[in-house]
Write a structure and sequence with these properties.
Elements lengths: L1 H9 L2 E2 L11 H12 L15 H15 L9 E4 L1 H13 L5 E6 L5 H7 L3 E6 L1 E2 L13 E2 L2 H7 L4 E7 L11 H13 L3 E5 L25 E6 H4 L8 E4 L2 H12 L7 H16 L7 H23 L2 E3 L6 E5 L17 H13 L1 E2 L1 E2 L15 E5 L4 H14 L1
Parallel strand pairs: 1-13, 3-4, 3-7, 7-8, 8-9
Antiparallel strand pairs: 2-10, 5-6, 9-10, 11-12, 12-15, 14-15
Helix pairs in contact: 1-12, 2-10, 3-10, 4-5, 4-9, 11-13
The chain binds 4'-deoxy-4'-aminopyridoxal-5'-phosphate.
Family: Belongs to the class-I pyridoxal-phosphate-dependent aminotransferase family.
Subunit structure: Homodimer.
Organism: Anas platyrhynchos
Length: 401
């Protein structure tokens, strides 16, 4: 919240908050116009509380295919106000006083307060970086869980683990081996997996996004969460969903029914049309799910080049909108203040937006309080931006050094 406000006040180029500044695909804009101007005036009224029927039907079809099982649209899928509400419903539904929830650092910042609001205790485990030897750029794949350390975090109090692959902020795409490690521990300790997969279509360099719910023993204990905002570059529409077994979704429906109850009908209708189109074109070159990551990979590479040219070392992400860069070489611009309560990267990001007009988010924002100083010389950039925005960022960087 603090950095979004600073970006609004000072930035000329905002690579902070994660949203595209390019338009959504034409087919979706056309569906949007049709939904609002067409004959279907009931689209302006309430629809089914747990998800507009056309949307839950096509989500059940698509995710059924991806997970290799038959899904019931009415009981295995629920629509939410963005993935954010899906997360909130999960924590409220499953976490009780005294329960522990394992969160992998760095993490999307709402997990920690949401666990606490439900009365639970977050238990943190960091991804640990290992620098590549041969002078190559670091990749998000170089940030790994220590298997013994992860195992040590599970106990009889563990209710769930939150998995976010592809991960915000690092862009890490968890490998099958890593997911199997998590899955085995969930099965062993009878824990749930809240799997935040909002960047599921944004995976680069031919990497594969593996759904943990598809691994052995995991369907019954996993809620998979998605976002139309990220899927179709429409973050303002706030349409998200949960997919999982009815034994879990029934509790999520209870929370939803007694808090939000209902999501915007027209937005759900348009997203349903978008998915219908993608379902028919699945894996084909003209599919948005094929085209978007291609375009995004180019944007990623462009920002990587801009950063490398000035000595801000990027960690090349395997997925998502985001890229984290090492700012150690820039310490002479913003000297360290020993014993400051504020992590270095936070002061650096504030200085950068005020003095250079370039907004980014400090990596420490994605760590819990006591760990904020462990990785405090990195900042996160969002590269889901128009060519002109990336060029403007490049101009700022090249003039700087
Ligand atoms: N999870 C992650 C990892 C995210 O990055 C975001 C959005 N920044 C969300 C969930 C929330 O998604 P939505 O906008 O659909 O609520």
């Amino acid at each position: 919240v603090e950095f979004v406000k600073l970006a609004a006040t000072y930035s000329t180029v905002n690579l902070g908050q994660g949203f595209p500044d390019f338009p959504p695909p034409d087919f979706l804009k056309e569906e949007f116009t049709r939904a609002f101007s067409g004959e279907k005036h009931m689209l302006h009224q309430y629809t089914r509380a747990f998800g507009h029927p056309p949307l839950v039907k096509i989500l059940a079809q698509l995710f059924g295919k991806l997970l290799g099982r038959d899904l019931d649209p009415m009981t295995n899928v629920m629509v939410t106000v963005g993935a954010y509400q899906a997360l909130f419903c999960c924590f409220q539904a499953f976490v009780d006083e005294g329960d522990e929830v394992i969160i992998i650092e760095p993490f999307f910042d709402c997990y920690e307060p949401m666990v606490k609001m439900a009365g639970g205790t977050p238990v943190f485990i960091p991804l640990r970086p290992k620098a590549p030897k041969d002078g190559k750029l670091m990749s998000s794949a170089d940030w790994k869980l220590d298997p013994a350390e992860l195992a040590s975090k599970f106990s009889e109090r563990t209710k769930a683990i939150v998995l976010n692959s592809p991960n915000n902020p690092l862009g890490k795409v968890f490998s099958r081996e890593e997911l199997e490690l998590i899955a085995d521990l969930c099965v062993k300790h009878d824990a749930l997996c809240i799997s935040d997969e909002v960047y599921e279509w944004l995976v680069y360099d031919g990497k594969e996004h593996i759904r943990i719910a598809s691994l052995r023993g995991m369907w019954d204990r996993t809620v998979s969460i998605g976002s139309a905002g990220k899927t179709f570059s429409v973050t303002g529409w706030k349409v998200g969903w949960t997919v999982g077994p009815n034994r879990l979704l029934q509790h999520i429906r209870t929370v939803h029914q007694n808090s939000v109850y209902h999501c915007a009908t027209a937005a759900q209708e348009v997203v349903a049309q978008g998915f219908q189109r993608e379902f028919e074109r699945y894996g084909k070159p003209d599919s948005y799910f094929v085209q978007l990551p291609k375009e995004m990979q180019q944007k990623r590479d462009q920002l990587v080049q801009s950063l490398v040219a000035v000595g801000m070392k990027p960690i090349v992400p395997e997925g998502t909108y985001f890229l984290v860069a090492d700012i150690s070489e820039f310490k002479s611009d913003v000297p360290d203040v020993p014993n400051s309560d504020e992590p270095y990267d936070s002061r650096f990001a504030k200085w950068m937006v005020k003095n250079k007009g370039l907004a980014a988010i400090p990596l420490s924002a994605f760590y819990c309080g006591p760990h904020k100083n462990n990785y405090n010389s990195f900042i996160r950039f969002c590269f889901a931006k128009e060519e002109a925005t990336l060029k403007a960022a490049d101009d700022i960087l090249q003039k700087w050094k």
